[in-house]
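Sequence in, structure out. First:
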Amino acid sequence: MERAIAISVEHVSKIFPNGTTALHDVSFSILHSDFVVIGGANGSGKSVLMSLIAQLDAPSTGTVETAGKVGLVFQDADAQILGETVLEDTLFGPRAAGLPKKDADRIARTTLATCGLSEKSDFPARLLSGGEKRRLAVAGVLAIDCPIVIFDEPFTNLDWPGVKQTCAILELLKSHGKTIIVLTHEIEKILGIADRFLILYNGTLCFDGTPDAGLDSDLAQWGIRPPLCSYRDVHDLFWGERDADL
């Protein structure tokens, strides 16, 4: 069965009032239930693109269309916390949608269970770990039944356990058939489960293809560290450039 288009971006440009061009003639489409990683260095236009897809802003030229609500998980998870406790925070969306109290409570508790936060339902939301806050943000998105979810730099400020928790919830959302976009320059942490790989560089879409094809490209030219490298000993644990004579 042919899948429907979930997101359509056609010849989109975004120019700010000061004349800065954040995006230039960007076009692509994403199918329902696709898992897409959009890579790019800081300042490449990833967050601007996210705001356009989520209709938080309008393009200067071009069109953006989505099939259904878009849920956002920002890199600053604290910015999305609205309730005092984990349960109160998850209840915010269903209550704002006007659902009866009993239905809102059922949906909130179900999504917390899905995200592995049931035991923290009465815990102060702002005292959660970084990974748990990401899961709480996802619970809020699931509670309002968004078919499309965008993660903006989801691994920012996370330790190893937090990265694992975030990867687990991303994999869970993929298994549930959600359309997922992950905006990140840390592609080595998530590219392995992606269906599509796009790369933005200075506001231009410079690659759109499979993850394998992307890894065969010269990623460094677009400000992305090639992830296919090996570490044999302590001398390899350095990301800078060494003088060959040292």
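Second:
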Amino acid sequence: MKKLLIILAFAFLPAVAGSFALHASVLAEDCMHDPIYERDWNAEITTGMRVRDIPCMESSVVLTTVPVGQVVHVIAETDGYYKIETKEGIIGWSGQWLLEPTYKSFTLNAPEEPKESLYDVVGHQFETAVMYLKNNGIIEGYSDGTFKPEQTVNRAEFTKIIIEAKLGANPTTYATGCFPDVQKTDWFAGYVCYAKQNGIIDGYSDGFFRPSNTINLAEAAKILVNTLDVEKPSVVSNIWYQVFIEAMQNKSFLPNTFSAIDQTVNRGEMAEMVWRIKENVHTQPFAQFQFQETQPSTPADPGALSSCSDANLPSSIDMSEVRDEWLVWYNSVRDQSGLHAYSYNDSLNYSATVWSEYSDSIGTMSHDRPGQSATGDYDYTLITQWFTDLGITFANQSGVTYSENVGWGTYKCSDTDCTDELLASARVIFDAFMAEKGTSYTGHYDSVMNKYFKEIGLGFSVNPEAERMYLTVHYAVELATNPGDVCE
């Protein structure tokens, strides 16, 4: 590399107007004109180094950078530059002052073997099903070549794949605002709205779809049966999912990896169920669930609670303490907003416990009353009749009569005093109610903070075997009639 040497000489002359400048070409490099000599030795980087495509600073392109301490292979030399090869196999030029000879060995990184698409399902119990979906264009897998068969599926992903299994394409004409939490621009909007408008899904009782929620077996069975036309058996039941589960297990379509109705579905299980349905496969091991016979038109029996609303709760739970604490939580947040305090009504404690126990008996928590034809709706007529059957009617103030909040949570306790455990689980539900403030859905929060309601009832059912508790809150402006002292 050659540069012109410039010698500036100054004489003591009178100052004159003007300026002194060097032309840019005087400092320019003389690139690619010097001879190149072959070399064969290793060097260690002493200063962070840029590797360039030609031995030139101004007109070169930086190919990569090499950190201090890395060993490279020197393969050629020219004036001021070495031609080197990095361990990644990149060949280029770098300044000689950035490295020094070393006896350390140089090793090229072995190129990574290309992996077969969906390589992580090879040997998996659901390999046949996953490859069936891939070969039929229903799934593609992730960009890294994996399928992740053990990863859970959310409601949006599951709906998309099942609709594609039916249609083979995205039904974009259905990409409308079918749920408050499904926007037209969402990647899953077309599939979800198609499913709703074709009676495949209903959403939750509050009107939302909750696309990011993981999907469980009950929800998945409904979508599969309704979308892929699985034959439904004749079932008379209050349990909304029973007909869908029986439809799937009657045809051996449920993989034997399922042991509970509310178990989340993973990607492998999803593929297996689609494959079995599409190819009518009956030869694989399958899961079987038993259901108790129920009468859909019969409401929960008020006499099931004996003479008191808490008679069926374990003696290890002090419900007086639980209700006292719950009321403190409610009235504290109401007081902060300048609202009057709530008080308990024994009849509402009774009705709330009846509904919690009924929900426990069917293994799910919702507002759906026995005999309701469409699940997921808040049917005021049926709920009002349900209260009437218990001997409870409500006064009306400014169009406000009553409301109901429900929830379920984990409960695990075998101690002699389980009150704190129940309170901890109840607190999670209370906090969820309050967290709705300022969100797109505030139904539970609005009931807690309603300015007209004066009385509430709180009822529980606990299921130690399922490690669950069921909670119901009933609100009223005032009762017009009630069944009297339920604990008499």
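Remark: Confidence is low (pLDDT under 50) at residues 1-28, 294-307.
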